[in-house]
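For practice. Any example?
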Amino acid sequence: MKKNVLFVAGLLLMASCSHDMDFPTQEDAVKTNVEKIFGVTFDPNQDWCTTQNGKVTITINNPELKDVEKVQILTASPFGNGDANGALSLNEKKISFGQSVTLNYDAPKMYRRLYAACVKKNGEYFVKGFNVGEQNVVFTSNTVNARTRSEAGNFDLDALVSSLPKDLVLEEPEASYNNIRNWNGWGNDLLYHLPKTFEATQCLTISDYTDDYRDDLYDMIFNGYLQNKKDNIDKIKNSVYYMSNNNYPFATGSDPIILAPIYKNDGIYHEIENCDIYYYYFKQETIEGMSDAEQVQYLKNLPKYKAVELYTSIVDPHQMINDKIKRETAYTLIFWGDGTPTPGQTKGEYKFPEGYKIGFMLRSIDTEEHHNDPKVKDMRDGELYADGRLNVDINSFGHFKTSGLQGENPRMAWFWANNRKYLCCESGSDKDFNDIVFEVLGGIMVPPPPTIDKNKYTFCFEDTPVGDYDLNDVVIRAYREDATHVVWQVVACGALDEVYIKNINGDIINEETEVHQLFGKSGKVFINTEKKKPETPFVEETVEVDENFSFLNKNYQPYIYDRTNMVETRLSINGQDPHAIMVPYEFRYPLERICIKNAYPYFTYWAQGLGITDDEDGFKWYLSFDEDKVTEAIPTLELE
């Protein structure tokens, strides 16, 4: 507390003169101070809580999870992105196959849906979504498909492929749209395909999805990683495949590579009707040492081979159940050797040598309906690549430029879930990347298991009732390590008074040790509140807790005691001023003497209940701040 002195006039007046006089109380002083600082009236129903609590029982009955090591509650699906797609762990516990465990969790109010995760001993994740408030999640053979040595489901890829024709040859190629349009560098771009008699036999029938599995996959892709009608381009460009090698996975050499179309029907689904998918491949060592421009030119000249003619792979896309995933057919990719193939002579085989990089291209062909309209003729014809460097021309052409994906933006995204691999395509005029989805079975390498961080909460205190509301007099962070351990971090002290932390009761952080002393400081000094980049590492301690522990339970919540003024400060509740709040995540608290309303411009809107909420539908006030008025992350103090 930065010494707010309350002057109360007339305290020494004669008793005979004070009978009819109402002296200001501390409550009056607090109210006057709040009105002066914030200039608004708070919503009387504002409980200052950004968190919800729940409990769920997780049961493991799937034989493929016999080597399960632990279960977790996550804020999001962990698949598809290098940083685990923003997934954070709320709680975890050891488990064995056939067991059930119950986990108590605290989740930010912004989430209505969470994810139960089974983590195997090798680090692989299998997840299933559930709504906040649901009591049970069961992992059975219906929700996680079994895997074989080929990692393709309850079937053997080699056995399936053995029935396909062996004497594979190609027909004469055709020029690509890029070639026909004389776009720079595409003059030798040719597209190859099998004779019609072979295309039908290249198709495999693979229908091993259960309804539960399809629903879970839809949830993870269309409600999770690549949400409908959302701008998902940043997720794509930050993904493991794109960041490391421009969306080129490696062939394992152990199994055939099979592409299985999965269709999301959202009404009139022209993407299925007017698209084909092609592939190409190359050795990594071939492009090593090339400049980026040389690599691009090399890739433009590679032969492109048709993998799937989408419209002929289904009966009637308009008869599909709305918002469902469906897979009935699959197509084997064929390796035609290196160099330019000779139509009618070059023989193909069903396995790619280990280490080849595989690239994909979606070819959009204008419908007859559009071709009859001279205003849009050819505007929907184009080749769209997973490698964004090959999209420079098409991203600024015709129908495709309306997506806003100008420049070197990709048109495909890799996604993996529950040990399955998916290729998600953006074929049109937005950026959600879920117009067409393929499952890629067999011989493509899966990225390493994700690393999941813990979800943190930040407790921010004013140390006396009449405060300046920079909410940094004591700052504590905490996260749940597992079902019976919480990690507490004391990160800052903006108080000049003698202050103690209550209710943590650790060996280091306890009510007997003054806060400044925790940092090895003495006297009236500010710690990590005056400079944007804090200089003092935080103090950390792990404390054992009951399995029913919750940050929302008052019996477990930390509070502070200002011994100088003999005042306790607990988390604010309905009808009170925000003298102490708990914020989800690693909250960047305000700098010294900067009121939270100035550091976080939407705070007062939230406090007044004016549409700024902390749930899924509202704007999260703590995500919008003035960069110059808040602190940065704080380094960890190594404890002896």
Remarks:
- Confidence is low (pLDDT under 50) at residues 1-21, 143-154, 314-323, 636-640.
